[in-house]
Specification:
It contains 34 helices and no strands. The chain is an all-alpha fold and 871 residues long. Helix 24 packs antiparallel against helix 25.
Length: 871
């Protein structure tokens, strides 16, 4: 017979043959091109310089292209400029190294006259040579010699200080020398305008005179800061009116470094000042830096203008806020800076350029964000602190709010935290309330920088710059659609919603922190947090039921209500009475919110939370009755029972499924509590089976709840039998199996389409599985034999009548029973075999399976399809 390979193998073979054909074709094409080139006649040569336009054909053969004469040989191109620059750079570097070596090594062997002559001659020559080279068009060589001249002038300064003025102060001499060199190289660069190196070098040298002068004079840090600021201002002037991009870039880099250093000096002096008078002087430095940054941002490009505005705003806040902050304690200093940062918002009416004003507003936002970052850890401690009460539930009511949190934070130093949160919340709430006025004031800053270009359709219709508009129903609540251009900025409604959400969250946090800072009594703290949860629920219900869809404010209220409920629930664990009161109130509040709210998602969240709080209440009841965990497990099932009844009442309401699933989780908790005691575990499993059977009465729950109820009943039976140490479970399971199978037969006669798992699965599993479990621990041969015979009969009946449940259950039990009987003999054989044989057999099996993988896969699919066709 002819062997027909599998499709996958045949496809791989075809791919290999096609690849070989492609490779061979490429070789033949390459050989053909070489042969064509070899058959062409040789091209005669002629002197270069002929006029190509006198001939009518181009070398490429394209009509209309400039023709080249026969025998025309183009001139060889000159060496690339990159190679020339490398050679000149290496040459200049070698000359500079030689000059340094001469100055450091050979200088001392010459007299004063020789030294002066050598220095003067070499430096003067290096300075004059670039001018001569520029007139001859050798710009790159001139640049290399100018770099050498720069190194020589620096060496001259070092030599003069080492020989002519060795006793002078090094810092002072460096300050004077850098100033002289900066002036010299500025004049040199202006005189030889084609050189690109002298002017940036002069800018670099100009960074040091004032700084070294201040150090040499032993000036205080404030004077050093002024020197740095003056240098930064000079750099700003050069960057604004300097000649050439190299000069401007160098000045920008130097000005940024010097300005940042000046700001750091001023900020360090301001924050460490002993009083308002001590903070005034560094404040003046910071104000001057702010003015310089704002002046630089006035006519700068967009990015630099915004950066300058940010720097100016932050420096102004540090300058003005540092004076009152020096008179306040550590816990209140942040408030002074926050007020100054909020005052920066008045820049919208100051008439500044748009980009600079945006930078100042960004600085204001950064200050506010920094203040919030300072205050938020304390709020997190208030919300998460009650977690420590889980280790000692109902230990007794603490005296105050702080002692209930168990936190070690220095609350006396965080007294300003609630004030900060309340102040920012008030401003955000005002913006939310009077948003049209805020938008009108900020309108000049929100102008678009560029007008979107009209597309072809808009140009044809005569509507220039028409913006894309969303189709009906394609809402985009967080971004501007019409007129937003390509930037997709947040819309006014989204910004207003964010302001309202921020005001709500920060106001809630301010009230919580106020209770901790004031250290209110424990009962007041618990009652206050519960009242806040109720208020947040009311806002969430009102916002979700407004008919405008989900927005930031009701979503924030919902999240805050759930988070606050968890926090106050943990806080109430210190006292038994507080725990019952709080969780009872939470259950009622969330249930009422679920009834009143109109939207589906909030209703489901509120209903689920109410079920959780009710489940916790049932757990408290068991603890109050001094019940062990397994004894309290049946009490926990009260809430799952109520969820089953509620699900039957709600029917197909979207809230029914989340509520019932939450109740199922409560039932799972009850099972976990009863695990330590087998009789109670059997009781809890049976009760859970009753609840599942009650849910299975409804048609929409029957496919899942029916199987679950059967499995729970069977499992409860097994656990009960195991707890009673029954060695013959068949006496108890067969009386259940026979009626169950009879009911299954009647069900199949009435409904032939019914699944065999529904009809026969519970009855068969009730006997087969417990018997299998006992057979595995039974040393006798009678039970495994009878069980194997019964499983064989059931398997054959399933195959004969095409019943999936009988075939699967009987086959699995028969296989496991047979494995149990063969296990001792397999162990004996394995002990008698050489140790290398089992790995070899396993490897051989893997090879066989791998070689016939496709066939085995098809067999498995056919088996799956055959089982799927069974009932």
């Amino acid at each position: 017979m002819e062997h027909v390979p599998p499709p996958a193998e045949e496809l791989a073979r075809l791919d290999r043959e096609l690849a070989e054909l492609d490779a061979r074709r490429a070789q033949l094409l390459t050989r053909r091109a070489w042969l064509l080139a070899a058959l062409r006649p040789p091209t005669p040569t002629a002197a270069p310089g002929w006029n190509p336009s006198a001939w009518g054909a181009s070398p490429s053969g394209r009509p209309g292209a400039p023709a080249q004469p026969w025998g025309y040989v183009p001139k060889q191109p000159s060496a690339p400029r990159s190679a020339q620059n490398v050679l000149l750079t290496l040459g200049g570097l070698l000359l500079a190294v030689a000059a340094v070596a001469f100055t450091l090594v050979s200088w001392g062997s010459m007299g004063i006259g020789g030294r002066s002559a050598v220095l003067a001659a070499v430096t003067l020559g290096a300075l004059i040579a670039p001018a001569v080279l520029l007139r001859r068009g050798l710009a790159a060589t001139a640049e290399a010699l100018a770099a050498l001249a720069l190194v020589l002038t620096l060496l001259d300064v070092y030599a003069v200080h080492a020989v002519a003025a060795p006793d002078t102060d090094g810092l002072g001499f460096t300050a004077v020398a850098s100033a002289v060199l900066a002036v010299l190289w500025t004049a040199y660069g202006l005189a030889l305008g084609k050189l690109r190196l002298p002017l940036p070098a002069a800018v670099v040298l100009a960074q040091w005179p004032l700084l070294f002068w201040a150090w040499a004079a032993g000036a205080p840090a404030l004077v050093v800061g002024w020197a740095l600021l003056a240098t930064a201002v000079l750099d700003g002037v050069i960057a604004r009116w300097g000649k050439g991009p190299g000069v401007r870039v160098t000045a920008c880099v130097g000005g940024s470094a010097m300005g940042f250093s000046a700001l750091m000096v001023g900020l360090a002096l301001s924050t460490t000042a002993s009083g308002p008078l001590g903070a005034a002087a560094p404040g003046a430095l910071l104000l001057a830096a702010a003015a310089a940054a704002l002046a630089g941002a006035w006519r700068a490009p967009k990015g630099f203008a915004r950066t300058g505005g940010v720097v100016a705003g932050l420096a102004a806040v540090a300058a003005v806020g540092g004076v009152p902050a020096a008179a306040l304690s550590d816990g209140w200093r942040v408030l002074a800076y926050l007020l100054c940062g909020l005052a920066l918002a008045g820049v919208v009416r100051a008439g500044l350029p748009r980009d600079a004003a945006r930078g100042v507003l960004a600085a204001s936002g950064a200050v506010v964000a920094g203040a919030l970052v300072w205050a938020l850890p304390s709020l997190a401690a208030v919300l998460l602190g009650p977690v420590t009460l889980l280790s000692d539930v109902w230990a007794g009511s603490p005296e105050g709010f702080r002692s209930a949190l168990g936190s070690t934070l220095p609350w006396s130093e965080l007294a300003a935290a609630p004030v900060v949160l309340a102040l920012v919340a008030g401003l955000l709430g005002s913006a939310y309330r009077w948003w049209p006025s805020v938008a009108r004031i900020a309108a000049p800053l929100d102008a678009r920088e560029e007008t979107p270009k009209p597309d072809a359709a808009s140009r044809a219709a005569g509507t220039p710059g028409a913006a894309w508009t969303a189709p009906p129903g394609a809402g985009a609540p967080w971004y501007t659609v019409a007129g937003a251009g390509a930037r997709g900025r947040p819309s006014g409604a989204a910004l207003r919603g964010a302001a309202g959400a921020g005001a709500l969250a920060l106001g809630w946090g301010a009230l919580l922190l106020a209770g901790v800072v004031l250290d209110v009594p424990y009962a007041v703290a618990v009652a206050g947090e519960t009242a806040l949860v109720g208020g947040l629920l009311a806002l969430a219900v009102r916002g979700a039921g407004s008919g405008r869809g989900a927005s930031a404010v009701p979503v924030t209220a919902l999240v805050g209500a759930v988070s606050g409920a968890v926090s106050v629930g943990l806080l109430s664990l210190a006292s038994e009475g507080a725990a019952y009161t709080v969780f009872g109130a939470l259950t009622v509040l969330f249930a009422g919110a679920a009834v009143r709210v109109g939207a589906e998602v909030p209703r489901a969240v509120f209903a689920v939370a109410s079920v959780v709080w009710g489940t916790v209440l049932t757990g408290f009841a068991g603890r109050s009755l001094d019940l062990d965990p397994h004894e309290a497990a049946p009490l926990v099932l009260l809430v799952p029972a109520l969820t089953v009844l509620l699900g039957a009442r709600l029917r197909r309401n979207p809230v029914a499924l989340p509520v019932e699933l939450t109740g199922a989780l409560g039932a799972l908790v009850a099972v976990g509590l009863a695990v330590s005691d087998a009789p109670f575990l059997a009781l809890v499993l049976a009760l859970c089976g009753v609840l599942a059977a009650g849910a299975a009465v409804r048609p929409e729950r029957r496919p899942v709840a029916g199987y679950l109820a059967a499995a729970l009943f069977v499992l409860a039976t097994w656990v009960r039998l195991a707890a009673s140490e029954v060695s013959f479970p068949e006496a108890y399971t067969l009386p259940v199996t026979v009626p169950a199978l009879v009911v299954g037969v009647l069900r199949r006669r009435r409904d032939p389409e019914a699944s065999s798992w529904t009809a026969y699965g519970p009855g068969l599993a009730a006997t087969l599985l417990p018997s299998l479990a006992v057979a595995w621990t039974d040393a006798d041969w009678l039970r495994p034999l009878l069980l194997g015979v019964a499983a064989l009969v059931i398997t054959l009946l399933g195959a004969r009548h095409r019943l999936q449940a009988l075939l699967v259950l009987g086959g699995v039990v028969l296989a496991l029973d047979g494995l149990h009987e063969l296990a001792p003999y397999v162990a004996q054989v394995a002990g008698a075999l050489p140790r290398w044989l089992p790995p070899a057999l396993a490897g051989l099996l893997l090879l066989v399976v791998g070689a016939t993988y496709e066939q085995r896969l098809r067999d498995a699919r056919r088996l799956k399809d055959a089982l799927g066709r069974m009932r």
